[in-house]
Amino acid sequence: MFENLSEKLQATFSKLARKGRLSESDVDAGLREVRLALLEADVNYRVVKDFIARVRERAIGAEVAKSLTPAQQMVKIVHEELIALLGQPAKLNLSGQAPHVIMLVGLQGSGKTTMAAKLALYLRRDGHKPLLVAADPYRPAAITQLEVLGRQLGIPVHAEDVRTRPEEVAARAVKMAAGGAYSVVILDTAGRLQIDDEMMDELERISRLVHPREVLLVADAMTGQEAVRVAEGFHARLGLTGLILTKIDGDARGGAALSIRSVTGVPIKFLGVGEKTDALEPFHPDRLASRILGMGDVLTLIEKAEALFDEEQARKMEQKLREASFDLEDFRQQLREVRKMGPLQQVLEMIPGFSQVSRQLPADLPEKQLKRIEAIIDSMTPAERRDPQILNGSRKRRIAMGSGTSVQEVNQLLHQFRDMQRLMKQFSSGRGRGLFSLFQ
Amino acid sequence: MFLRRAKSIQESLTKTRRSFFGRLATSLFGRGDLDEAFWDELEESLILADVGVDVTLEVVGNVRRRAEERAMRKASEVEGILRQELVRILSQNQQPYLPGVRDLSVVLVVGVNGSGKTTSIAKLAHYHVARGDRVLLGAADTFRAAAIDQLRIWADRARVDIVAHQPGADPGAVVFDTIQAARARGANVVIVDTAGRLHTKHNLMAELQKIRNVAAKQVHQAPHEVLLVVDATNGQNAIAQARVFGEAVGVTGVVVAKLDSSAKGGVILAIARELGLPIKFVGTGETLDDLAPFDPEAFVAGLFEPVAEEA
Question: Chain A: residue nearest B144 by CA?
Fold first, then answer.
């Protein structure tokens, strides 16, 4: 688990007394960490360099707000600049006369075919009549893949023999759609290297024939430094109109988005977040900025939590956390809600500052272990859950038998629970104030 | 079908090597004095090649120390020790592919979505066929639409047999049947294609462990290779991939796919350095011949070949 940037900056600035302004040396010390965070997130070296220069200019001499520490002030500036650079989310441009042609382009394996299906589903839900077009005769079974996806979604797919040239396939599909049956045509083109002239010529020919409204570069969130040259290559030949970042559901920090955005200037339109055909998300610059900085994806977590916890319950829980009157009954409740949000480790990592806490938990809390913990708590009586102090040897034996575990495991859980209570107390007594303020 | 010209491995690799540190070779080592700007530029070149901050700082630090010990004054003198340092990192953990002799070898191929597993498997099958092996492919990616069809087409091209179930079938059952069929048909190499999965999906990683266990129960010490296919265009996330796949299913080697792209694949240095995983093959194109055993010496030597055309 990477230490998040806020923690690193906190450490860097901890030596400095609290001051009203950020001095040049403070800023430079802080920017070293920012630079590393961005490079670790695969933001292109030169993009990082420009970015750091800009932040430096703004940060030196900046007033530190009363409510913030110098580290927080620094993060705030960096975060704001990053958001500005990522730009505002943009909708698909479907103006003008139908059918609107959307062309998906990118390297091999970036996720174009899956994305074509996701976009088609998204547009149909938005009231459009999409037609999917299989314009990739090269990759074995790429056409079949799109046809299968189309069948699953009940969205028509135009495909021809693999010997037909993709520009002809595309042109015929658009002509067909112009008859009025379809309002949007989505072209799934073959993956190609931007340095492959012959293949790039083909894309140009398609583009000239069908006049796409949107030419979207589909890029893998895991892409490294080369994102810059890939994007430049496609942009120079085709004039990109937008970017879609895929596989963002992994743990890649997605620095490629920043690189691509800053060399092409095209807006980010969507994020692909999973293999299911409805796993398409609008892009939120603030979230992506936090993610690139390695500060956790707080907003996503809060949203996930909001969707699952009811508000009343959440308020009560927070109250308990503050008062540290948190018992095993609450813990069980919490555990169930958290498990709905995904694997625990992942959830904890989304919370800035909480990586501290998760480090105190067993290094890798597998789901299986969570189930055992839940079983142990389930086997207690309500009175025991409210007051674990009353657990004596005989009660523990009963619980162990009831949950199919051992007395040692029961003891271990109680021990961990006590540690957790202690941590909560520390948090509520000031050291973790920042954490709670995030949830308000 | 094959609209694109088949490239020889030699040709592809040469191109890769040229673009790898092309700029480095000319502008960096040809610059004359060994000044501060030289070290900065070396650092920049390594990071731009996706080597990552940690390994870059280590490499630059080591090379710089040695250069100073030997009182080097010219940039051109450093090239040799830089090359040595990179080769050292890459060859530290090198191990042969499928060492030893056995009746039936099982090779499991894993990786994140879109890394190039299926294409790499086709090339690997071709590689074995060329060595006189009898290969059987197992289509255990029963999840992704048309993944089975894709592997079937490749199997035809590589002239090897394939065992496949219906889409959505249990991948463990596919592996079981593939190994049974291999025994019945006298095949000596089984290569299993698995569904792409992001390493952060715990349940899918557990499924992979199950596939592994199915193989282990049927063949002594199987799988004999677990190859992780890493996309050369990936950045630092490839380290996380290698780490998590390694912990889950015991990766024995890495295949670097798409090294014919403009990307440098430098993250393999970090994978070798931080995780001690051997790099076993490199993929350099879209035809069956575009796969070569990884050779650290040749690879690094290629990095410093002079480059003519690239700006």
Answer: A145
